[in-house]
Amino acid sequence: MSFERIAVVGAGAWGIALANVIARAGRRVTLAARDRAGCEVLLNRRESPRLPTIRIDERIAITVMTADLSQQDVVLLAVPSQQIRDATRTIGESLAKGTPVIACAKGIERGTHKFMTEVIAASARAAVPAILSGPSFADDVARGLPAAVTLAARDQSTAAALARALGSAAFRPYHSTDVRGVEIGGAAKNVLAIAAGIVAGRKLGASAAAALVTRGFAELFRFGRACGARPETLTGLSGLGDVILTCSSPQSRNYSFGMAVGRGDPALASGMLAEGIFTAPVLVEMAKEKGVDMPIAAAVAEILAGRTGVDAAVEALLTRPFRAEG
Predict the structure, then answer these.
(1) I need a surface site. Which of 131, 217, 238, 325 has the fewest CB within 10 A?
(2) Is the pTM of this model over 0.90?
């Protein structure tokens, strides 16, 4: 398989970063903005306020999301998880049959409990769904700094070909067929990153942060295994790797949001878009359905819903019965 013409739908920070790194790999890249006004701004400035000082590669064509994508070999959806369905429907009719459509968002759809590849499959019959996830900040990728991620598709040869098409010396996609494992790692770690941010914002200390992340990853692992994910995926880049990144840096929007919540700054928190806000209640509902105990995720969901305060949630976690590790 040879994927030379690649469209990135979504001209936010992550979309621009992906478009830049793929263009540097020598592919013919089209960046599709949400609307005509946004498209004009990018065309005129070759720069976005979402990624200030980062120049959009001159080789990248810029258009709107409603453009005809029938000639594209691959489409990457770099829009928030709760917008994946609308974006897929928008581009779906113009796709050639068998076109790989790669979700680059980390989340679970509210209401339906569907993962991103399931949303793509339901919204665009011509698409071959895939998922790209892993420890990668948009600013790092856009600047050409080294990053490694996981790219998963059901078919091994498709996943490998997509990894080759998107990869370069600085951007290293490892391919997999464990689609569900990759999706679970990306979605669940956002909730854990909010929890880690709350701990930091509340100044509970490095020891508490280490314990929180370790026990939170145990929850992620239990949930992943209950959903059929492979252990090596959950302990790989899209699982543990992403946990390490987003649970330790204010560059993570979920971590920064959690810090604002932990500091008791609702005004700052309300202005942040963090995927984990939407994922937390859905993740807890799905865990209950599968009989998986996820107390940290549940505590985050309760805090975000306003049903409990941070101090009460911390106390509830610290007074849980002593048990064997596992």
Answers:
(1) 325
(2) yes
